[in-house]
């Protein structure tokens, strides 16, 4: 009964989404206040019913109601309760429902915080979000109903994919979706502005905080996914350039470009049509990511089951959304020309370069991801584009970007006099070069051109990001959250680059067969396998090695890598044993059993790897601080009219 | 204006590539056995552990080889149809009980019925590897010459049987 109620709630949500998608748009066109007002109410109602349906599905999982096909396929009696809940979004149907839920949350938030915006604009934004929601609810109900019954009901379920039975993966998808879906808000703002034809700077000001919040969720989501891959897949890698990873990374790159381009549009009224295009592109790439994951069009470890009907539906939806956005854009964009100019040495120039480089990076990732598909469609065989290609291709635009970042941060809008600028940046530049050349040699006993370039880039960004916070601390003049947030986000980039450079240059890795009592030495560390034993988990059994790590005779720690066999799906999982330190990880994973008491063991030394995720978190923290800036909260129409920045064209 | 049109054209091109890619079903590719001789196997019988059964038992006549396991929900879904199909006597069905445990598999057959002429007990999944099994259930249609005519992934239903199997079976062998 409960699943049917959930199903019904979804149908009600669809009806409300349709009202929300149609009435406010008509209302805004006719300037009918009553019709425009429907938007908020419908959005709240839709959220209620989607949340209710979601609750029903959670209930079905927690109760192990195997008469629901989705539950039977993705849960199991002995699955720990927390994973029964996270199994809700562990596969296609439920994750789609979660997508719709998050979209309706964003919509409710937009409805709530848009009270200061002009009514017709808010109505159009809610209308566009309603139409998107209608599409996704139709997709859910027509092709991927999570409440489908299974008769006869099996006595036990097929279990959740063991890879997903992990706390990291339990929260990775919701965060990632919050980011993906969050770009729908920037998209809706762009569409609303284009429909109204009133593309003033305020549009950028209203869009900025939403874009930043979506971006910070995406940042944390991607970082969490990477962290999970690191400790769960057992290879010790943190990024694989897998199509599905790329699918989440492309919106991130374009979203980052969008954040910067919005800054120019807000402050200077420039790049308007470009910013609109980025807003469309960021969300289109999120939709594309969904399409790639859901349709199984690209072969990937992440991809959910292949299903052409689903793929066809989402492709059609994608086509309608993106094509109508582009047609609208082609119609409106030519009428937007900026009059303001800027000097070659100005913040505008650097932000322009930022955008160009980020878009190039995203394009390269896009090409690498889709090349295999294009080649296959052209019937020219099968190719795969691997990590080495991506690493080189990606570094080409990113390395200059990192150097330019330090310059751009300290450049004034419009025009920057060269002399004080050089004086300010001289010290960080010297520090970066000296440290960049010395650090690899001092700490890791090896010099190298590429490593030094990487470390110089990282230290340069860290040092230049700290200039403003240090000055403010000395002078006692507080920075605005916008400036502080920017500095911290860029600091995060520096930490990230430092981590990536060090890990890729100085990691050590060995595979060796070990039996209890034997040991391996790599770097300064000695790993001794003390014991092998069996361990039983709730739904798996495991072989566990107890490995003691010493450095120069001194005890560093003990790790317990496991090889687990999950009882239902019979699949083997590697649980790496990791000794975590701020400046290095010691990573031990069990490979295969070679003899009765002999296992192949993979031992790795990963210097500074924590900086990769720390960097991402610091970036997100910067975003969080930036959105807390007062000017986004008091963005009332009245204030702007007084300042005369709103050219009322009504 | 031209550049905006170029943008839209580029998108339409990409869209077309996707549409084609979508119908290029990646699942169709990976059966290297299609049209080839089915792998030979010999395993203990599920019901009589002492007896060896295998591909020799169905040599010279068309057969359906169904890979199943008690832990697989799809197998439970298709089990009813397999029983019906076995009752019509259209084709003998041979099971490969894949990566399973014997007591559970026996009680499954006792409770739900046994559509199989025999089930070979492939405990460690080695025969499954020879047959290129991705996941249960999988069903292979083999003709009298031992050639794999069709492979179906996922639960078998009457509709799929009529659509994908019957035409091949009718065209496939003089002995049917």
Model description:
The complex is a heterodimer of chains A (650) and B (176). Chain A is α+β, with helices and mostly antiparallel strands and 650 residues long. Chain A is 64% helix and 11% strand. Chain A contains 19 helices and ten strands. In chain A, helix 9 (243-268) packs antiparallel against helix 12. Chain A is globular, with a radius of gyration of 26 Å. Chain B is α/β, with parallel strands linked by helices and 176 residues long. Chain B has a single domain, classed as Glutaredoxin, CATH 3.40.30. Chain B contains five helices and seven strands. In chain B, strand 4 (93-98), helix 3 (102-112) and strand 5 (118-122) form a beta-alpha-beta unit. The interface between A and B is medium-sized, with 36 and 25 residues.
Spans of chain A of 5+ residues with little confidence (pLDDT < 50)?
A: 300-305, 635-650
Q: Name the beta content range of chain A.
A: 5-15%
User: What is the count of structural domains of chain B?
Assistant: 1
Kindly state the number of beta strands of chain A. 10
Our count of helices of chain B gives 5
Shape of chain B: elongated
**Major sheet details of chain A:** 6 strands, antiparallel
**Low-confidence blocks of residues of chain B:** none
Given the structure, what is the number of helices of chain A?
A: 19
Mean pLDDT of chain B: 82
- Which structural class do the helices and strands of chain A define? alpha+beta
Largest sheet geometry of chain B? 5 strands, mixed
Mean pLDDT over all positions of chain A: 88
The H-and-E topology of chain A, N to C, reads as HHHHHHHHHHHHHHHHEEEEEEEEEEHHH
Percent helix range of chain A: 55-70%
Proportion in helices of chain B: 25-40%
Rg over C-alpha atoms of chain B, rounded to the nearest angstrom: 20 Å
Order of helices and strands of chain B: HEEEHEHEHEEH
């Amino acid at each position: 009964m409960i699943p049917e109620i959930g199903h019904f709630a979804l149908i009600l949500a669809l009806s409300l989404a349709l009202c929300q998608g149609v009435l406010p748009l008509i209302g805004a066109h006719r300037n009918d206040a009553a019709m425009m007002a429907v938007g908020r109410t419908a959005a709240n109602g839709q959220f209620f019913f989607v949340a209710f349906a979601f609750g029903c599905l959670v209930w079905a999982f927690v109760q192990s109601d195997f008469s629901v096909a989705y539950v039977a396929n993705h849960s199991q009696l002995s699955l720990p309760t927390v994973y029964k809940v996270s199994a809700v979004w562990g596969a296609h149907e439920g994750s789609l429902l979660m997508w719709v839920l998050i979209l309706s949350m964003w919509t409710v938030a937009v409805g709530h915080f848009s009270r200061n915006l002009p009514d017709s604009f808010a109505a159009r934004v809610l209308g566009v979000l309603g139409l998107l929601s209608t599409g996704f609810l139709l997709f859910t109900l027509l092709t991927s109903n999570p409440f489908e019954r299974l008769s006869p009901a099996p006595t036990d379920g097929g279990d959740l994919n063991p890879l997903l039975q992990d706390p990291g993966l339990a929260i990775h998808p919701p965060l990632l979706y919050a980011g993906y879906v969050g770009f729908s808000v920037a998209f809706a703002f762009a569409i609303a502005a284009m429909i109204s034809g009133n593309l003033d700077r305020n549009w950028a000001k209203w869009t900025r905080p939403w874009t930043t919040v979506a971006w910070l969720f995406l940042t944390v989501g991607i970082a969490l996914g990477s962290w999970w891959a690191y400790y769960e897949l057992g290879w010790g890698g943190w990024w694989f350039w897998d199509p599905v990873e790329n699918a989440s990374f492309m919106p991130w790159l374009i979203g980052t470009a969008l954040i910067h381009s919005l800054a120019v549009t807000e402050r200077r009224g420039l790049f308007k049509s470009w910013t609109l295009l980025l807003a469309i592109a960021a969300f289109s790439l999120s939709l594309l990511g969904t399409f790639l994951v859901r349709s199984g069009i690209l072969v990937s470890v992440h991809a959910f089951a292949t299903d052409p009907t689903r793929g066809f539906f989402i492709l059609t939806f994608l086509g309608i959304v993106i094509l109508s956005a582009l047609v609208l854009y082609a119609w409106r964009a030519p009428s937007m020309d900026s009059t303001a100019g800027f000097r070659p040495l100005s913040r505008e120039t650097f932000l322009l370069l930022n955008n160009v480089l980020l878009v190039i990076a995203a394009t390269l990732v896009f090409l690498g991801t889709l090349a295999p598909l294009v080649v296959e469609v052209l019937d020219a065989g099968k190719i795969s584009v691997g990590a080495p290609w991506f690493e080189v291709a990606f570094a080409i635009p990113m390395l200059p970007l990192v150097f330019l970042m330090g310059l751009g941060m300290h450049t004034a809008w419009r025009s920057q006099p060269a002399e004080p600028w050089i004086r300010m940046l001289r010290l960080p530049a010297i520090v970066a070069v000296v440290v960049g050349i010395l650090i690899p040699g001092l700490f890791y006993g090896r010099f190298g051109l590429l490593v030094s370039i990487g470390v110089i880039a990282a230290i340069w960004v860290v040092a230049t990001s700290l200039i403003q916070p240090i000055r403010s601390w000395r002078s006692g003049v507080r920075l605005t959250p916008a400036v502080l947030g920017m500095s911290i986000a860029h600091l995060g980039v520096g930490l990230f680059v430092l981590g990536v450079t060090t890990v890729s240059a100085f990691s050590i890795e060995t595979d060796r067969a070990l039996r209890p009592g034997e040991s391996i030495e790599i770097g300064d560390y000695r790993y001794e396998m003390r014991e092998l034993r069996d361990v039983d988990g709730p739904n798996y059994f495991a072989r566990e090695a107890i490995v003691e790590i010493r450095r120069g005779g001194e005890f560093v720690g003990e790790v317990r890598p496991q090889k687990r066999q999950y009882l239902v799906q019979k699949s083997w999982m590697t649980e790496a044993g990791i000794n975590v330190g701020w400046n290095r990880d010691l990573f031990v994973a069990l490979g295969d059993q070679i003899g009765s008491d002999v296992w192949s063991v993979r031992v790795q030394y990963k210097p500074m790897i924590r900086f990769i995720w720390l960097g991402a978190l610091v970036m997100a923290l910067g975003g969080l601080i930036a959105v807390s800036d007062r000017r986004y909260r008091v963005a009332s129409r009245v204030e702007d009219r007084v300042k005369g920045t709103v050219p009322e064209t009504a | 204006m031209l550049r905006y049109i170029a943008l839209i054209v580029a998108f339409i091109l990409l869209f077309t590539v996707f549409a084609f890619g979508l119908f290029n079903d990646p699942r169709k590719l990976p059966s290297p056995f299609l049209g080839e001789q089915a792998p030979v196997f010999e395993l203990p019988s599920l019901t009589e552990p002492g007896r060896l059964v295998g591909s020799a038992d169905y040599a010279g006549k068309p057969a359906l080889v169904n890979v199943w396991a008690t832990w697989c929900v799809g197998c439970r879904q298709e089990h009813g149809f397999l029983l019906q199909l076995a009752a019509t006597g259209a084709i003998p069905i041979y099971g490969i009980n894949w990566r399973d445990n014997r007591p559970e598999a026996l009680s499954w057959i006792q409770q739900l019925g046994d559509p199989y002429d025999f089930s070979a007990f492939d405990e460690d999944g080695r025969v499954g590897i020879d047959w290129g099994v991705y996941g249960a259930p999988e069903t292979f249609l083999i003709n009298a010459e031992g050639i794999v005519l069709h492979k179906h992934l996922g639960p078998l239903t009457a509709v799929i049987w009529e659509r994908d199997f019957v035409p091949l079976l009718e065209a496939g062998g003089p002995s049917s």
